[in-house]
Design brief:
This protein is of the alpha+beta class. The chain contains two helices and nine strands, in the order βαββββαββββ. Strands 1, 2, 3, 4, 5, 6, 7, 8 and 9 form a nine-stranded mixed sheet that branches. A hairpin with a 5-residue loop joins strand 3 and strand 4. It is globular and about 40 Å long.
């Protein structure tokens, strides 16, 4: 398995104030994806002039106001998923994944409580 992207992600019930804050810090919107998975998540990627990336996702179903996570894109989703499961991670979605025509993902929660949003981009 190869990690292809690794950056922070903020998952929140209200993404607009978070986007505004990071725009004030010099980040610009680079990519937006809507309607992800059965939870209908909206995600935006931002970048600053140095190339740092930050993902911000809006998920209305969260039991708290926000969660800070790590977004980890990989070239082999199943291998990475199984490796995390073997290390005690639990899939937030149970045994499901959030699938779109261009990606497959699962929010994985570690035994100590931090999260990794595991993502595989599907290239057609």
């Amino acid at each position: 398995m190869k990690i292809t992207t690794f950056n922070p992600q903020i998952i929140t019930k209200d993404m607009e104030p978070v986007i505004k804050l990071f725009e004030e810090l010099g980040f610009e919107k680079a990519h937006k994806k809507e309607g992800v998975g059965e939870y209908d998540v909206t995600g935006i990627q931002m970048r600053d002039p140095n190339g740092f990336k930050l993902d911000i996702s809006q998920a209305d179903f969260l039991p708290v106001d926000s969660v800070v996570s790590i977004r980890m894109n990989v070239d082999d989703f199943d291998e990475a998923y199984n490796m995390l499961i073997e290390r005690g991670f639990k899939n937030f979605y149970g045994d499901k994944t959030a699938d779109t025509p261009s990606s497959k993902s699962a929010v994985m929660i570690s035994p100590s409580g931090f999260t990794i949003n595991l993502v595989k981009h599907i290239k057609n």
